[in-house]
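Collaboration report, partner site 2.

Our partner group contributed sequences for two proteins of shared interest, and the home lab folded both. The records are reproduced in the order in which they were received, starting with the first partner submission.
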Amino acid sequence: MRRSERDRASGAEAGFSARLGRLAPAGIRLLPLAGGDPSRLLRALPSAIAVQQRAGAPAPGPATPDAAAAIALPPGPPGRWRALVEEAAATLPERGWLLVAGPGGDPAAAEAARDEMRLAVHEAGLVPVDGLPATAARPALCLARRDPFRIRALAAGEEGLLAALFRRCFHTDRSAEEWEWRYRRHPHGGPWSSLAVDATGAPVAHYGAYPVLLDRRERERFRPLLAAQVGDLMSAPEARAAGRGPTSLFARTGDHFYAARRCDGIAFSYGVHTGTSRAFSERFAGAVPFLPAPLRVLATEEIDAAARRRARALALGGWRARRAAAPDRRFEGLYERARHGFTLLARRDRRYLGWRYFDRPGQSYELHLLERGEELLGWGIFRREAERLIWGDALCDPSAAGGIALLLASALEATSTRPERVEGWFSPEPAWWQRSLEELGFRAAPDPQDLVFTCVGGREPEPASALRTGFYLTRGDSDLF
């Protein structure tokens, strides 16, 4: 460890000890847990902190309240930890304090258990306010305060709670059926949803995501990755004053969410943020912006004669574009061929596309295909919004990129009145796709809402640089289409 790192670690320990001393001037009562090792916790505490060891198991309820208590979690699988932290929290008075020590042992293994500790603390109705990572000489420590709010995973059948919270936050409706589609019917699992509830069980904040399977090209091989596409971030207006900064309900719900996703083994999380949620995510979740929303715009009156001639020539050569009702079995083969032209992209196979665009309640999308004979060469997903045609998603065989003029013509001809412009989000990579869009007349434009893609590390702790240069993203890779 370098000297600067040692100095920071020493300062963190001194600050933690000082805070603990201020919060527990009368000392801390050590609660025994089966399998726990209280001697580890005793060695980790500052010598100035008085410690009393209670005999027997902690009794839940207010009969024996402790202003400050401590527990040492037992080693082994963390499945019991949530019940043990819940039991210890029940001995505390309102706004009492609990110090939780990890199982110790190998620092790397103890650090891996840190997220399980934080989940146990959040779900017991405790607010983490300070902590120290594990070292060879000391277990990980988490200092938390009792609170009327709990953060937990969404339970089966609770989609109606999300519908009610969404209505309170955004003054618009989204049906319970759509929430079920988002979090129960996803083809890759879930639900990945963290919900904050008050003392009555009413929802007050939410942080959610879809599981996404990605393929990363490494030379001629592909490595599958599991990622989380973050969305549906919200907090009820009346709960926004609860806590400040990292102890606010929104930040705590995000902390629970990212801890749970790391336990799921995801490579990283990514999503689109507006100003407020972006600031919170960057400050309290370690989110890193990696790409402004890559808006591309084409005024339909500027589609030049050359593009029309290309479309006619392709049609004469046996190419065609048409609207289709749903993905068919050819989509699997197209994806297997097309992915060689990308560095990193979501697995756009038939199963995922069917869920994303054709099973979604209350939304209607148009699928247009690019074909040559019976061979599928590409596809696009479109939706009409007033005077705009939104090009929400696309995949094309790199060898057929010149045919997207025909694909776009099919989508434009399907509208009853010609839209004024076509808009889409298409990331700068791959370069061959960008060139094809530019040849059609698409130009980069600033997003009117100043939206930005951000990421939070998981098994890949610092993914931003790789995502910035190689991730193929469209509007369909957000929850805004």
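Second partner submission, folded after the first:
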Amino acid sequence: MADHQTLKTTCWRRVFIDILNVEYRYPKLKVPQMNEVFPHGEGTMSRHPLRSSLRTLIFGSALALAFATPVLAAQTQSRKAEDVAEQPAESYQAKGIEFGSFLMLPVLDVSQHYNDNVFASATDRRSDWITRIAPEVKFRSRFTNHQLNLTAKAEQSFYREYTSDDHFDFTLAADGRYDIDRNWKLTGIVDASQTHEDRGSPDDAGGKEQTRLRTGTAKFGTEKTTGRFGLKLDGEAIRRDYQDVEGANGAIINQDDRDRDELRLTTELSYELFPGYSAVVEGSVNDRKYDDRLDDRGFNRSSHGSTVRAGIGVDISELVRGDFLIGYMNQNYEDARFNTIDGFSMKASFNWTPSRMTVVIPTLERSIQETTTVNSSGMVRTGGSLTVRHELQRNIILTAIGSSYNEKYRGTTRDNWSYDSRVRGQWFLSPNYYVGGEAGYRERTSKVDSETFHQTVLLLRVGAQL
């Protein structure tokens, strides 16, 4: 019973993170550099006593868990979920290179992209060819107990015509797990990476080059099961640092007023009602602190908030796993001109396996997202996605992804709808070589005409792995 509950309590996070990993891959993810992970900016003191207590609580929890974990460990469930999503049958998987107590897994991926609207423009559409070279190496531990994984990945993008958008991204990560006993473990992840903001982002500065974003992340948590009860505690600290860019007129566009620290503490309690079904209650608090007390338009964007959700967790053998949670969310802003955002919150993600060759993953979401859009305190995002993965053969994997989200910017009339659809195929010629292709279409409609665009992307890739 306890083992069953342990599997259940970790299931929904793996499924949910798997969906997050199928975000639109053509734009860059937001990510950091080690020496800029936690710089101090002005306006670090909060006028709210609750905020100071919250920051102390979250940092204290994270540090306590850090010292309690001998390895700087963390769940790279996002990476693992992505690996599983693309892995063929075992006979076609890379064998790796033995490296002491670790298995080294090097990969080199080269892809050629065609984008018919590289600047995500409503009217002035420009197309281009992009070549991306992405080496990666992973070290996976093979300990009897516990786990430690290391990842280093780089990606260089070359544009054939609009070379000002050439850029280099990287990710360095360490994750792992420390098993106190069979029902209690500590987890953690530290991550430093650099990415470039997608031209289609609502907060894109519109510079001559894409905005560079460096992000540092530290997550520490614990999971414990006792009989029918399961408990999780997760602390997360994120540092985001945006680089200034040059505008079309040669003037520098300041991005420092977007730099911020984000802290989050989440607790989840579950109780197995009967085999395969559990009641779940989840609560979280967050604190978002901007370096600059006022941005360039005179707004104080720092805030704090909380979310409480409850629902049902399902784990029916190998057929269905996931959670459906609903509740209440709120975000309170330091600037008196920004109204509090609150209301209905929802998070749902299920992994349905109708056959051994097919996986169907639907998700639903309603959450409060950060934005630096003029006059808007925050953005309420509502929508969902559907992913279908099918093994046509043991070495040929087909994936179809579709999503639709409504984005309401509080304090303005801006109301966007975003649609994304993609189909992807991966053919593993042997354990060491693969080829693949992808076609994607993305569209955004908005009450603001300049925010409307559509974009088609095609790509072919080849890869080698050991």
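Feedback sent to the partner group on the second submission included the following. The first helix runs from residue 2 to 20. The domain at 2-109+122-353 is CATH 2.40.170 (Maltoporin; Chain A).
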